[in-house]
Amino acid sequence: MIKVIKIGGNVVDNPAMLDSFCRDFARLEGPKVLVHGGGVLASSIQKALGHEAVKIEGRRVTDEETLKTVTMVYSGWCNKNITAKLQAYGCNAIGLSGCDASVIKAERRSPKLLSDGVTLVDYGFVGDVKPESVNTAFLLSLFDLGLVPVLCAINHDGKGQLLNTNADTIASSVAAALKASLTYCFEKEGVLYDKDDEGSVIPVIDTKLYERLKVEGRVAEGMIPKLDNSFQAMRQGVQEVIIKHASRLNEHSGSLLTLTEDE
Q: Please, which residues have CB within 8 angstroms of residue 256's CB and are 6 or more apart in sequence?
């Protein structure tokens, strides 16, 4: 089974954690894809440049200046730093953005209504990606060459415009396109019932429980798009979705997501 692994910005921004993760990822057998974020570093660089990062319902608003910053951070430093580390551990990685070989195309997002049903938000140069946006033939050809794709969150519309997409969405769309398993690795042990208690990992979450957790405020902000993407990916053919700590990539741990029986 093809494996798609996604690591978050807090892992990418932590040298020790990233190094350990890359070592573990390199040991994974079989065809695999790594998708990475980098939002933590991007936000800090934006601030240093005098621009505050703006996020609405867990998603980054990308104006023209923000697009320049995230492109430099995601497809530049983050992507090549990760690729170099994987090479050091014997993993023949190739770092790519979506415009490289047109591996991922996107459509610029139209203004969206927020969950309140009233507020309309223009997210700027943000691209919506679907499984059919992914060039699966190209990814499969890389596997045949013994290469491991490392994908960042920058893609394009095919008409010369770069776009920024939430890396969780990239990961779920790639996994759905490849009918792969999907693992989200970040700095928490899994989805927590109590965000302040690392021991409160919810081992199994189905869609009904997820709705209840949202109502209770147990999941919020960036976790919502992560779980939304995960359940949508499973409806589109992803084999399984697990959310876990980056240091436990090769362990049975974290939160397993499942669809309810009627889905």
A: 203, 204, 205, 240, 241, 242
